[in-house]
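User: Hello, can you help with two protein structures?

Assistant: Certainly.
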Amino acid sequence: MKMSTTAIVILGLAFSGIPAAAYSQSGDPCDRKTQKHKLDLIADEDTKTITTVVKGNKDANELHVCRGDTIEWNLKGGLEFYLGYFEDDPVLDLNKVSKGGKLTTKVRNNAPRGKAVSYHVRLINGDAAEPIIVVD
């Protein structure tokens, strides 16, 4: 009986305890369809400060995204907030004010990969939080 090289490799992986599927993936976290990241902003209205950025129930003060992904920020109560960069904007078209407590933007298709970029988010007339976006 003659076995193909593919069958031998799959059998070898099966006996090694390593799933064969692990070898068929590229290892690139952005080797997927684009995603929409919905972020909730939590604010202290007394101090007019955004205190936390969350995605679901997880901290999103460092958000990993891919080119072409969409990011949506929401602030409960419809309070207006501002998003912007301290430097040139290599990732998103920011420097915008929300409408009704919501702002949506898309990660640029030519955004530099692997660089952590700090942006600021603040209530109008408030202090800024400084979360980070990383394009994987």
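That covers the first. Now for the second protein you mentioned:
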Amino acid sequence: MSSPAGSNAKVQPFAWRWVFASMMLFIALELALGEGMAHLLAGRVLSDGTSLLMRNGLQLAAFFTGGAIIGVVSPKLRLLEPALGAVGCMVLIVVMTWMTPIRFYGYGGVKLFAACVVSFGVALAGAWIGERVMGNV
């Protein structure tokens, strides 16, 4: 079966380099957003819960923004790569928690699965917005 001419013209083959580029971009954005937030909140006292909420919010903001950036700068259509990059970042965090003596921050099982699903969805939404801006979807 052949597809109609042009229906796959915008689809690119899967590329791991875009997954790893997404991961690096997500980390850089989270650091930049975190630095800005640190200056904004300097000298203020936050509860542990509020601090954790803000850190997780920064992470999700980085996934969405980074996904949108990848959607804009990547050639043709790239939706899966930034979403998998977000999952890769979550896996990297889990690996880092294995070396952390504080179990409060530990991920595992259901928490890890939920974090990966949410991260995948947020980065995918960002990538879709970026691709939409570029007219690819």
